[in-house]
Each structure stands twice: as structure tokens, then as C-alpha cells.
Amino acid sequence: MKERIxxxxxxxxxxxxxxxxxxxxxxxxxxxxxxxxxxxxxxxVTQGNRLLVLQQLKELxxxxxxxxxxxxxxxxxxxxxxxxxxxxxxxxxxGNCYIRRGSLFVCINGNKHKRxxxxxxxxxxxxxxxxxxxxxxxxxxDINLPYRVLAQKVGIALGSVSAIINxxxxxxxxxxxxxxxxxxxxxxxxxxWITAYNDFLRPRLLKKRMRFAVPISDLSKIVTGAFWGxxxxxxxxxxxxxxxxxxxxxDLNWLELKTMALVPDDxxxxxxxxxxxxxxxxxxxxxxLLVYADLMNSGDGRNLExxxxxxxxxxxxxxx
Length: 320
Prior knowledge:
Order of helices and strands: HEEEHEHEEEHHHEEHEEHEEEHH
Strand order of the largest sheet: 1-2-3-4-5-6-7
Number of helices: 10
Strand content: 15-25%
Structural class: alpha+beta
Shape: globular
């Protein structure tokens, strides 16, 4: 994909484009009229992965000292606007682009994308798969449990477990040997899961938006059967963040949250979401995986900083 998109830029503009690879850093480099950029290739950019992609671009720039260049098949205009504020250059497969560095400035808009045939989303990243992968990322050794046990723990059909695990193996996220099965490429699987969760499942979970009638002063005062996610969950895990948006996961009726001085408000800063997993009431927060996913779905820089802390601490096992 990288070569085709850069070829489109060269054909449209007449600019000289050279494609290189820095083997010492393991990164891709593009030289456009002798101006070098560090390249990230991402098939599509969506609401679910836009901040993951932005973080990766910033990390590439920090590692190389080169301006970032995103190559993608498609990126929505709203995300383009957001990225431009962060100094991100991009080219899409239709030839739309924004590239600015020194005296080099190229801006092309309005090129139409060819309508591509719809491809079926992998079952591993549809609802049942999202639930199963959530379980496996929390407990990688659970991949060796009998499928019937996994189905019961996750709350999905037995047949779905078999199909999803086979698909994860095809996608190189699972390695099966004669003696055991191992979860592989966990960082990449985490990113795929976050994108699928935020794009597909999370929007379906919203029960109610509410607000505090009286400002909350103690996050430990959450009703039994409800759990903090997002910013309050991160605040409890890291002590690094003062919440602005409050995320609650629960199977309770929203009316049962009134003891927390919560009242319905369509524009309120409290979002109440349904739980899609089983959890005891021993903890006040959801699993750090879900807190991390919630933070990566926001547009707040402080949230991204906090997400990196959680990834390096509570979720450090995923990088091993």
C-alpha cells in the first residue's frame, strides 16, 4: 500500500519521491523533494483507532527527529482536521494529502475514493470476539481452558469460541503446539481490540447520560455493583488524573445510581454503560484494559499521558 500511495503523489504533483528504510531504527522513510519524513502505514483511520495512530506517529517522530507522514487508504475529514492541529502530514489512496515542511507544501482535497467491495469484519473483532479477546488479554493462560469453560466465563456460544480462536490463529495471534496454545503478538492484538471495542461495541453499551447534582468528592463512594472506567478509573489506578468525564459500568438500572446524587442529563458528564463481562464487586474500577481503552477513545492529551502510565504499569505484561 505504501508504494502505491506514494506513486499517486508523484504522478499528481511531479514531485520526486524516494522510498527508504532505516534498518538501524526499523522505520520507513519517504523523501519528497529531498525532505525526509518518517512513515506510518495504517489501512484506515477511525474513531476507534485515531488516538492510537496519533500516538504511534508522535513516537516515530520522537525516535527519529523526522516529521511524520501517515499513509492510509482512507481517513475521515474530521480526523484530518484533528491531525493537522498536531502537525501530522498525510496522504490517502485517492491522492488527497496535506504535506508541510519548510518550503515544501502540498495540499490536495476533493479526490473521490473508488467504491470498494465490502469485506466482512473478522469474527474476532465483532461482538462475541471482542468479549472473548477481552478475557484473553486479561488472562492469556485462559487460552488453554476447555472451550466450554471459556464460553461460560465470557458468556458467548460454544461454537463462537471455536470459530474465533481458529480465526485468531489464522491472524497469527495464537500459536498452537502439540502441548499448549499461546497468545502471541499481544501488543498488536490489544490495539486491534481497542479499535474494535471503541468503534463497534462501546457505542451499544451506553445506557444513560447523567450529572452529579452535588459534586463528587470521593471516588470510593460508588454503589455496589457499579465500577469506574475511563477517567475516574484511571484516577484511582494512577493518582495522576482529575476526572472531567465520569464513566460508570454497571448492570444496575440507572435509577439505582440516584444514591450517588446522579440525575439524568442528556448533556451530562457522567456516562453510564452496560457491563459485557462478569465482575465481582470487590474492586471499584473495571480492569485496567477497559480503563485504557476508554482513555484512548477520548481526545484529551492528559488522558493519553495517563493511558501510557497504565500501559507501562498495570498492562506491562502485554508487552512481554
